[in-house]
Write a structure and sequence with these properties.
about 250 residues, alpha/beta, Rossmann fold, 10 strands, globular, P-loop_NTPase, ABC transporter ATP-binding protein, ATP-binding, ATP binding, ATP hydrolysis activity
Length: about 250
């Protein structure tokens, strides 16, 4: 069997006496859309920062794209794309300038960078806006542009932290179409969200409750397991169970 692109084994992060992520263990396959779900404060962002090589685990281990996140964080960073929950492009630069700037950071050089910039603008139908400042674009277009820039260098994995926050339902669906397209190209998509309906778009989902991984499976199987009509119901059942100490 092919080696998982992400492997976490009892991955834990403590801040003093507070345990932000508590011994989480999971694998993610290549080309999978993996949803990391949970309420705000559940430990999703902390876990993602460790997987991206941005934060050192307190204990446990994780390998991303074949590299240990604690001992080879720079190698991890070279093989991933990342889009934060806050808009990650420079609003005072034009669309074309942002693409060129981040392409350079990712190590792309002309003529490859020029070709990729033209392809990206055509794919998003933003040729007419190439010279507009990003700050003038609607939020949905900003998010789609930020995601496209995050995979400009064809990374093995792209990490997305609450990418659809504040975006209307129609634009959210369009954004997810971009994720499907990326997965079809072999890019693994690791996405955190607190929108439970977005779980339906993922191949598999894990549900975080108070820093712990409460469940992990396909959306269909999770609903069957918990006798739920929706992922909202699954999450509610798990959250109530955690409150009761089950």
């Amino acid at each position: 069997m092919e080696q998982p692109i992400i492997q976490a084994d009892k991955l834990t992060k403590r801040f003093g006496d507070f345990v932000a992520t508590d011994a989480i263990t999971f694998d993610v396959a290549r080309g999978e859309i993996f949803g990391f779900l949970g309420a705000n404060g559940a430990g999703k962002t902390t876990a993602m920062r460790m997987l991206c090589g941005l934060s050192t685990p307190s204990s446990g281990r994780a390998h991303v794209a074949g590299f240990d996140v604690a001992t080879h964080p720079e190698d991890v960073k070279q093989n991933i794309g990342y889009m934060s929950q806050k808009f990650s492009l420079y609003e005072n630069l034009t669309v074309a300038e942002n693409i060129t700037f981040f392409g350079g950071i990712y190590g792309l050089r002309n003529p490859v960078l020029r070709d990729k910039r033209e392809q990206l603008l055509a794919r998003l139908e933003l040729e007419h806006a190439a010279d507009k400042r990003v700050g003038s674009l609607p939020l949905g277009w900003k998010q789609k542009l930020a995601f496209s820039v995050a995979i400009l260098h064809d990374p093995k994995i792209v990490f997305l932290d609450e990418p659809t926050g504040g975006v209307d339902p129609f634009t959210r669906r369009q954004f997810w179409n971009l994720l499907y397209s990326a997965a079809g190209q072999g890019i693994t998509v690791f996405v955190t969200t607190h929108y439970m309906d977005e779980a339906e778009y993922c191949h598999r989902v894990s549900i975080m409750v108070d820093g712990r991984m409460a469940a992990l499976d396909t959306p269909r199987r999770l609903k069957e397991t918990y006798g739920a009509a929706s992922m909202d119901d699954v999450f509610y059942t798990l959250a109530r169970g955690a409150q009761r100490g089950e």
